[in-house]
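Teaching note: in complex prediction, the entire set of molecules is handled at once rather than each chain in isolation. The prompt given to students was simply: 'Predict the structure of this complex.' The entities are:
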Amino acid sequence: MTAFLTLIIVLFIAVAIWQMVKIFDLAQVGSSNSQVATDKDNKLNGYLMMGFLAFIYIITILSFWYLGDLPLMSNSASEHGPGLDNLMIISMVIIFIVQTFTQFLLHYFAYKYRGEKGKQALFYADNNTLEAIWTFIPVIVLAGLIIYGLFTWTSIMNVDESKDPLVVELYAQQFNWKARYGGEDNTLGMANVRLIDIDRANILGLDESDPNAQDDVITTELHLPVGRPVLFKMRSQDVLHSAYMPHFRAQMNCVPGMITQFGFTPTVTTAEMRQNPDIIDKVANINAIRLENKEEIEAKGQELTYEFDYLLLCNKICGKSHYNMQMKIIVETQEEYDAWMAEQKTFKNSLVK
Amino acid sequence: MSAHADTHAHDDHGHHHHKETFVTKYIFSQDHKMIAKQYLITGTIMGVIGVLMSIMFRMQIAWPEQPNVLFEALLGKWAPEGVMDADIYLALVTIHGTIMVFFVLTAGLSGTFSNLLIPLQIGARDMASGFLNMVSYWLFFLSSVIMVISLFVEAGPAAAGWTIYPPLSALPMAQGGSGAGMTLWLVSMAIFIASSLLGSLNYIVTVINLRTKGMSMTRLPLTIWAFFVTAIIGVVSFPVLLSAALLLIMDRSFGTSFFLSDIFIQGEVLHYQGGSPVLFEHLFWFLGHPEVYIVILPAMGLVSEIMASNSRKPIFGYRAMIMSILAIAFLSTIVWGHHMFISGMNPFLGSVFTFTTLLIAIPSAVKAFNWITTIWKGNLQMNPAMLFSIGFVSTFITGGLTGIILGDSALDINVHDTYFVVAHFHLVMGISALYGMFAGIYHWFPKMFGRMLNKNLGYLHFWVTAICAYGVFFPMHFIGMAGLPRRYYTNSNFPLFDDTANANVVITLFAIVGGIFQLVYLWNFFYSIFYGKRTVQNPWKSTTLEWTAPVEHFHGNWEGEIPHVYRWAYDYSKPGHDVDFVPQNVPLKDGEEELQH
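The expected output is the structure of the full assembly:
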């Protein structure tokens, strides 16, 4: 049905263009039109320039109105998140001011100085003071942003190992994720894809002779205790993937043949986040949309009602099912985490003997 | 910077009356003007393919997995019962990117206007080597043909994204498109690079050696400066992509391990050991980033020229414009790492690349303010070319500003590879460069074909395109900031993103309307080639040398002696003259001073 409607719209537009072309064509016949802009053209397009300025402002306002509950600028769930969001908001404000101002100048000048016969343009070729002004203002603003950005970046990327972070491996393959915990010793056993033995259920290629590997725990859900630093070690067995955890302002590529890392401290449990008023609104909105599309969603076998969960998404093109490579993240209290961990099988016990 | 640059240029061989056959005139032509037209038309055809692809995958994003007549008609077996397959979705995204970046905005834009304008604006009879120029075009044609053929390969065309990161692009078992489709992609690109290098070398040599008497470097129009610097960037960076492509071919076909290591796929371990995909990313982006400047600098040059001419004012800050082109060119080669902040490279490198990247905002800001000052107190002639130039500055600002976020490694963590990036680069180098190209076509069409484009259709084309471009890419920033990753076949597996679905429909509708209205342009273009109004020699009353050449084309450009140059290219509305433009070949009056620029 949608396709049919699309086609009809396409056809209508095509017909409309055809008609317009014919009208323009007829209008030109017999006129001594040189196809160079006349005063009338200058005037019309000058006014349209102001109209277009209004259009830019309106689309900005509409975008903020309908799409402005930017989840990536508020309600972060990691310790470094608020600092990063702050930088984002500062950058956005600067962008917003410069955009509003320069677009105004550009379009207003285009309107104000539209050509008229007999008018003389100002011969004005150079002004070093002006050039200096618009060199140094960006320099100062950018210096501030660069310094703030670099401090933020360094503090995010430098993992403080003295705080005894929980070490978790994120393991990517076409098209799913696994998590591996270090177990009691919080140390990941050695692993290499050459050691993968599907028959024995050694799916991540752990070194069976490594004592550190014995108590490793492999899961398909990522559970994290709130408030404890986590150090992720990323691996991929086949192609590039990217571990994207938007709520935690965290992302790192998973590269075959090397181990990459990213660390953060989750600060808000899943249960707490579900009680956050912004998230309640967002979820309610999503559920209203889902209710409208009830049939389609149920036909796909998805649950109709959406409940908030943190997610790990793949964010580097990795093949056919890239669009469906996700893992649920659950942030919980230490007790809940311990209870969950106690239910998991260690590597040693999960092997097929 | 000598004022008498070249003696060869004003020898007296203007009359080339030897007979030309159809083949030497229209096909294997060595005349730069014909080659420019060949580039333009080939680029246009590739552009139609690229845009059509984007409309198809936008439809899939808006109405995921719904049957669509268009898919059924165009995709054949890739759209069983009209539903687009996930593999072909990725292929469409990949080939759209490749075609638009390389075949349209590199060859179609730079190839067309460098060829057309360099000899005409510097006062040369042709390129330094007409033969190499011809070879350059035909290599480009060959690479286009191979790229189009790759669409019809059994297992599908290349589908690893236009950045073709291995291992995905290296392993046929990782993805259907990484078989014969990727081989053809690599072959096509290798030939494309050869074409681009021949062209660039020719441009550089021509600009350095063949300037007419009096055409010092500081009298060159900004178009020529832009083409010249673009060609230098191309010569510096394209060979690196060629080497990356060759190494990837070795990995794919000859068992080497440059980019591959420790891979377990489809139940077996592969032999590759010791390579690194990150190395490929470095090699790719060492071209890939300069490439966006290869795309945008020529557009900047065209826009500077058109804005000055249509404002009836000198370009503001000629010298600052040249300095900023040079600064951008230099910086463009040391910022590639900002595509790789989260690739797993050392975070310290991320700091360095953040610093160098944000510096580019400075020359960019200088250029934007200079354009705005150029139209200040002008007498703006709102020709379609002028509208597209103003549109260029508008989208360049809107798109460029978000670069402050993406270039900042800390902020990039969160928006990397989301639709925020897609919105950013489409506005700042996609749409902007396309506007630059359209501006150039509307402005120099009379020079190319001796006829005028219909201006009313041009207005219609501009305004609808302008609205649709913002309609498509402005809201896209917001769905990016909602965390929506790019290159997802459908978002319906993530209820989290359900509230972006309506925005995606709106974006697609804008894309469809914008795409359809390009037909207005195409019709105008092809109709006017044959039936457009005949032009006068200098329809826009411009100062540059190409308008001193006769409307009729012949090999050699000027009958008789090549004009000499006595002034810079921007004497518009100069006090003390009766007309509001003084062409470069008009000697200074008694007591008139050339501006110290």
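Point out the following to students. The mean pLDDT of chain A is 90. The beta strands of chain A are 166-173, 176-181, 217-219, 222-225, 230-236, 241-245, 250-254, 260-264, 310-314, 326-332.
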